[in-house]
Amino acid sequence: MRTTQQEEASPQELHGALDTQALEKIARRVRWLIISTVANSKAGHIGGPLSAADMLVALYFNEMSIDPSQPHAPDRDRFILSKGHCSIGLYSVLALRGYFPVEELATFDHGGSRLQGHPDMKLTPGVDASTGSLGQGLSAGLGMAIGAKKLDRDFHTWVMLGDGESEEGQVWEAVISAPRFGVDNLTAIFDVNGLQQYGWPAQERDRFDRSEPLGHVDLEAVLTGFGWNVLTVDGNDFGQILSAFDQVRAWHGTSGKPTAIVSRTSKGQGISFTQGVFKWHNGVATPEQLAQARHELLGNDPEGELQ
Amino acid sequence: MRTTQQEEASPQELHGALDTQALEKIARRVRWLIISTVANSKAGHIGGPLSAADMLVALYFNEMSIDPSQPHAPDRDRFILSKGHCSIGLYSVLALRGYFPVEELATFDHGGSRLQGHPDMKLTPGVDASTGSLGQGLSAGLGMAIGAKKLDRDFHTWVMLGDGESEEGQVWEAVISAPRFGVDNLTAIFDVNGLQQYGWPAQERDRFDRSEPLGHVDLEAVLTGFGWNVLTVDGNDFGQILSAFDQVRAWHGTSGKPTAIVSRTSKGQGISFTQGVFKWHNGVATPEQLAQARHELLGNDPEGELQ
Amino acid sequence: MKAQRNVWGEEILSLARSDDRVLVLDADLATSTQAVQVATELPDSFVELGIAEANMVGVAFGLTTLGYRPWLSTFGVFLTCRALDQIRMMVSQTNAPVRLAGAYAGLLNGSSGKTHQDIQDLATMRAMPNMTVLVPADEFELAAMMPWIADHDGPVYVRVARDAVEPVFDADYRFSPGRVHVLRQGDDVTLVSTGVQTSRVIEAAGLLAEDGIEAKVVHVSSLKPIDEDGLVEAIGASPLVVTVEEHSVHAGLGGLVAEILSGRGGPRVVRHGLEDRWSESAPNDFLLDKYGLSPRRVADRVAQALGARSHGPRVTAG
Amino acid sequence: MKAQRNVWGEEILSLARSDDRVLVLDADLATSTQAVQVATELPDSFVELGIAEANMVGVAFGLTTLGYRPWLSTFGVFLTCRALDQIRMMVSQTNAPVRLAGAYAGLLNGSSGKTHQDIQDLATMRAMPNMTVLVPADEFELAAMMPWIADHDGPVYVRVARDAVEPVFDADYRFSPGRVHVLRQGDDVTLVSTGVQTSRVIEAAGLLAEDGIEAKVVHVSSLKPIDEDGLVEAIGASPLVVTVEEHSVHAGLGGLVAEILSGRGGPRVVRHGLEDRWSESAPNDFLLDKYGLSPRRVADRVAQALGARSHGPRVTAG
Ligand SMILES: Cc1ncc(C[n+]2csc(CCOP(=O)(O)OP(=O)(O)O)c2C)c(N)n1
Ligand SMILES: Cc1ncc(C[n+]2csc(CCOP(=O)(O)OP(=O)(O)O)c2C)c(N)n1
Ligand SMILES: [Mg+2]
Ligand SMILES: [Mg+2]
Asked: How close is the nearest chain C Cα to the Cα of D209, in Å?
């Protein structure tokens, strides 16, 4: 394979750069950027970005081999946000990580912005695949993983999916075919936050509660049955997240199988009034809600003054 | 619901009408009609219809509540051949069962025929859903089963899928959502005949052998994990088929779950030169091959002179 | 001034109350499409199916075999693109009475951007045998179409816009399939438009009038069936026709009008719509202006076409 | 006389031999599309993905990010209908160099019938930004297109017919994107055709000549991009244009030609193609005759159009 048209550069190795306390602090800032940016743009998703925030922070600040100054470095690890409506979570992490200025978040969703409503790889530095129509990201990641194997390239490809998204059949097409290719360089993170946009009513609660998208599915059994390595973590607990990453790294290049991380989280995690509330799938916080979120997330942390 | 526009008629109850020996005899005739009709039309599928023949015979001759003279009877059991390329298997059974003259099989695939290359519910008496683009039949069956529950109608809906077909994501969309609806009036038969049209090379055989479409999948574990009742049978053994049907009938209206029958069969089953040969996915037998098939299937059975 | 999606929510609820063949099938977007009104008020007429549009179309077909007439609730793009094969085989080829309510189709979808914009639905659905294709102008036209759709025996695709526009019709409007509406008279040019864009086109005609250009406005909301003679007659002796649509310039309303006129001789046709490119996420006004569908941009385009009738050599980009 | 699919199989094998960016991705139809030649001769350039077309498109996109230029092997209908949303977001919106080889598109698919016929692909792909849309006439034109496709930086949809036709070109043919080909001169009428139908149209022109009608034949194999001026010039002063295609009469080649001519004034256009209905499984000759694409039926249609230039009132059915 000719790779001459690609720039030659080495991404940074990060494993274990930060401890869980440092990661938690970053995650709180990310959550603040999420809710404040959406309020600023007057439209956007909240619950899904918040549930995924810790996982995104752990990946970008502690795990992936990346270099923000070289977003197209050929041997960087790849990340695909298959649940593309959670773009603001990814953008907030990319900004803090140095891919573009944090101030640019103020252009989110605006005309002419590099920060589209859904991730656009052609516009945003650090975005490895365009997403937005749900269910497609794992296929793209599988293509990258197959390509890496064919070219003997050593990077790892990470894909994050929603639990509602996993109702899409294409997810299972990718799940069924991936083990054929021995892609132990591919990890799918299922952000099982227990809610989708609307979904089914909960069985024994009032009509405004909703049931879990995959509540009736034994996800671990299913993924194992399809031939994947499976790990389960509390996806809002950095300790558990980092242990899972250790296992993924150990399996990379050795296990002969793709890995799934079943990441059990809460939708809207980290802000009292959004957590577990299906209506906060998307929404715009009032000034009072913003103030409360800010207090809960940043307290008196001056570095929180990021926007 | 208004159902006035539908004719009122009662289908026949069949359970246990025939013993396994009688069924085997019919199945041999069906196999002969399959290979001879395709030879006559000079195009068509062979392997998939042959693997499914016993299941189809058991359903139409011994299990389903149907009346060939009333193909639209509102309370008939429904059958959907999701793997629609196996139409000639279904047509042969429908013809022998009396839905239309056996002679009409000679028009298979011909211009203006009621017997299209893929099943067309608007043309062929006894065909409950149009299929041909793979992966869609289980969704249609789920719609029928949900509708029956809503309307308090007692019929059962059967859907047959291929193992290659089960690589289609839409199959899994239907599998994931069906348990939500408590459709114990729905049964999916997976005809796991071990081959698709082309598929993957077999690991340790020569390059003309192909591997099983779901060979790396623990299908029973997966279906159980998605919340289905699961039964496994040798789908070319009438004894096992009929026992499974007994269980399905016992679960109908009681189990609160849809049922999957994992029917393990051989592609091309019943004719020595087609069995297990992936190239016989489709094909036209030579006169010599036809003579041999006829001998193997019918011997001197005069009733075999059906076409 | 009411958004079509709100009208759709109210009307579908009232249809479901009076007609037990009506079911609403949702692919996890009830709160956007407003199917939520049926979900909360009439849960037995509501079937949630999750984020699985292909399966939803198959389930809808299955329900029609029992006499139901299901309406599908999701964004247009997740019907006409994500589930096109299912619509083709199970709905179009069987002529099943499934109602495809394509919400948020076109350019304007509340800043979701190009992944959620359906700018190909009219091309795709026009080429689909048995399909009726309706694109109402406003709340009144949509409301009037809905009982007709509910009673129609075959499949229907209907666009339901997200945001409100200045109404074109009023509560007295009566829907008649195929009919072409002349909404404004004018001898200099005929503007042919569809859907909520017609409201903006009428505004554009006002802008043109200020410059002394009198534009006729023809609204085509029933793309299929269409009264071809009615369209030809409506255009009359107009020296120039400009089609305007929230859709690709290829194969949509412009294609339809060109096809009809090209069989009849008749005036030169200029097609206006989304040029052959993808768009972005931004507020409506920004999008309409940047992508040429605001009244101002429409007016400018028409003035330009009237001024410069012959094109130089041109190869359209692939 | 060679079938396009066989030529495709041979050419893709030779491209894969010389260009390691070439990969063939198959959705379990390699034996039909002839991708099997790559699978057996050059297994490292072949990726089987099973019956999962949507996933295949995503995998193809992923591979392009590493410099690969994958060709997809399946029936056209399972690309342009089953995987349309994936093509839209992952291929068209990112302008990824994925090659969509739509086998068996159109009417003729070896008796598989309407579930396997793609009669909407030209409408759908024309309205897709960034997409190049090619429909070669014969073995020679397809072979000439393939190296061009292999080098093209964006996505390409190319129809590959199942069965052989009398060639229109020869081994000297050179492909140039957008170019329009005048294959026969004649003053009475211009027939515009695409794909393998052009071969049958040339035969139809011969039939017309026997009746004293001289038809010009224009072949459009590059629907996008297209040299619009070239098309207008090719048609020249012809009093009547009849478009002929193995595709719905709506929004395909006929739509394209009508769109171009309608911007220029010019002659009356009659569009000929599949009337707005689904077809059936039957041998090719039966299908061509019944559905109006045989040389005889094309010739009759043209004669009729020349005889009766004005239509009575007509509402096309929905
Ligand atoms: C194919 C497709 N269908 C529907 C949508 C609209 N949609 C956006 S987000 C969403 C719910 C997603 O739920 P989940 O995957 O659980 O995400 P999270 O809870 O993390 O927000 C839906 C239905 C879409 N973007 N794509
Ligand atoms: C969506 C779709 N993709 C591809 C095909 C072409 N096709 C027809 S049969 C077949 C193989 C099916 O294999 P399997 O489901 O195992 O059927 P069986 O072995 O019973 O014949 C394929 C790929 C199709 N009909 N539909
Ligand atoms: Mg969720
Ligand atoms: Mg099989």
From this structure: 24
Distance D109 CA to ligand 2 centre (A): 15
**Integer angstrom CA distances of residue C156 from B251, C50, C72:** 38, 22, 11
Torsion of CA B119, B123, B126, B130, to 10 degrees: 40
Best D107, D235, D259, D316 member to test C by mutation, with max C CBs in 10 Å, is D259
Helices A47-58 and A20-41 meet at what angle, rounded to 10?
Answer: 150
Determine the pLDDT at residue B87. Answer: 98
A166 lines ligand 1 (CB under 6 A): no
Q: Which residues of D touch A177 (CB under 8 A)?
A: 49-50, 52, 55
For residues D120 and B138, the answer to whether their CB atoms sit within 8 Å is no
pLDDT digits over D254-308, tens only?
A: 999 999 999 888 887 888 888 777 788 888 889 889 988 888 888 888 888 888 4
With a cut of 70, list the residues of chain C below it in pLDDT: 308-318
Q: How far apart are CA D235 and CA D193, in angstroms?
A: 12
Secondary-structure class of domain D180-317 per CATH? alpha beta
Q: How many CB atoms lie within 10 A of CB A22?
A: 14
Tens of pLDDT along D50-96?
999 999 999 999 999 999 999 999 999 999 999 999 999 999 999 99
How many whole angstroms separate alpha carbon C204 and alpha carbon C221? Answer: 18
H/E element, D71:
strand D69-75
What span, in angstroms and rounded, lies between the C-alpha atoms of B208 and B186? 38
What is the Cα–Cα distance from D28 to B281, expressed in whole angstroms? 12
Distance from CA of B204 to the nearest CA of A (A): 14
Residues with Cβ within 8 Å of residue A299, at least 6 apart in sequence: none
CATH superfamily of C4-160: Thiamin diphosphate (ThDP)-binding fold, Pyr/PP domains (3.40.50.970)
Provide ipTM, 2 decimals: 0.96
Question: For chain D, where do the domains classified as CATH 3.40.50.970 start and end?
Answer: 4-160
pLDDT tens-digit readout, A31-64: 999 999 999 999 999 999 999 999 999 999 999 9
Residue ranges of domains in chain A, CATH in brackets: 21-298 (3.40.50.970)
Please count the other Cβ atoms lying within 10 Å of the Cβ belonging to residue C179. Answer: 18
Ligand closest to A51 (CA) is 1
Neighbours of chain A (3+ CB pairs under 8 A): B, C, D
Nearest CA among C260, C234, C132, C252 for reference residue C181: C234
**When comparing pLDDT for B69 and A15, which is higher?**
B69
* Residue ranges of chain A with per-residue pLDDT less than 70: 1-10, 13-15, 204-208, 302-307
* 3-class secondary-structure state, position D238: coil
What number is the average pLDDT over the span D144-166?
97
CB D95 within 8 A of CB D155: yes
The alpha carbon dihedral of D253, D256, D261, D262 has a sign of positive
**Could you give the CA distance from residue C9 to residue C19 in angstroms, rounded to a whole number?**
15
Query: Between chains, do A180 and B200 touch, taking CB under 8 Å as contact?
Result: yes
Q: What sign has the CA pseudo-torsion B194, B199, B204, B207?
A: positive
Q: Which helix (H) or strand (E) holds C53?
A: helix C53-64
- Tell me if the pTM is above 0.90: yes
Establish whether residue B47 lines the binding site of ligand 2, counting it when its CB lies within 6 angstroms of any ligand atom.
yes
From residue D39, how far is each of B213, D30, D42, D170 by CA, in Å? Answer: 17, 8, 6, 28
Domain with CATH 3.40.50.920 in chain D: 180-317
pLDDT at A304: 54
Residue B112: half-sphere exposure toward Cβ, Cα within 13 Å: 4
> pLDDT band at residue B120, thresholds of 50, 70 and 90?
very high
pLDDT band at B253 (very low <50, low <70, confident <90, very high): very high
